[in-house]
Amino acid sequence: MAIGIGFILTFLMAVALGGNDAATPCDTTVGARVLTVRKAVILFAIFASFGALTQGYMVMKTIGRGIVPAIDLLGVLVVITSAFIWIMFCNYFGLEISVTHSVIGAVLGYGLAAYGAGGINWDLVQKVIISWFTSPILSIALAFATYKIIARIINNRNSFAMKIMPALLVFSLCYSAFAFGTNDIANATGVYVTVSEIVFGGIPEQNVMFLLAVFGSIGIAVGGLLLGTRVIGTVAFKITKLDPVSGFAAELSNAFVVHMFTTIPYLLFGYGIPISTSLASVGAVIGVGLAMYRSAGINKRTVTILMSAWIASVALTAVLSYTLYSLLLPITGPILKPNL
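^ that's the sequence the OP posted. Answer follows.
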């Protein structure tokens, strides 16, 4: 039963993830009016699945490892339920948030309820928070520089460069979706990995991890196709005005930053670093907006709303997770306890 619950929660998280994070690779192509939302999301689903199946194992981790000593089955249910409710709420209102922030906030809420403040690894939490700032800053800087370089090249070879830009933008969408799949699939599959550790006392074998990536990829595709339109519209049209040149610079920069956090740490240390692909994506769009129009070309109201949603993700999911666990524990108990 626990393993079945793990599969169901994995799929639900993947659907919510796809509904919100389809905007990560699709926003610039849609904003530049090169592809329709439907065509962009189909490409997203295909290449995100490819990334998840080939390199998703690099970042596939448990949702509670490190921040809390361990997490029981009731905690898994509460954490994913809390994150799922918040993500779906934001999907409905077209807010691109960080799924990573949402899950970590829910884990913190569980940790406070189960272990108290002394049971939280605050040093790790501090490092995670610092990492949330690095990806958008890198994306802003890289997108700004990339746009300036491309704009200079186009001025020298105007007609040819402008003709190939739409095709290059579609290519960057595919690469960005691939990079997304390598990094973000862990937000969905980590549920099952955690349940597997509780039941069997260890992480699943490599072939099971591959099947999880397949299962999660299907959920991401379903979520992107059914729920992704509103969030894509927010980032594509409400931050800055995009064209094929700026869209290509932004998406290529976003894809490179996400893929870099997946592959380089894995090659150096044996594990990839999960980052907020949403923050990287929005940061890249802001970067090209600054390069084209300076600060006057950025819709500060939209950016403020998105930043508020990012901050709220941690606080609200933490409060919801803490409340649910505190209410349910006296009734159900931990259901299944991990081996500490």
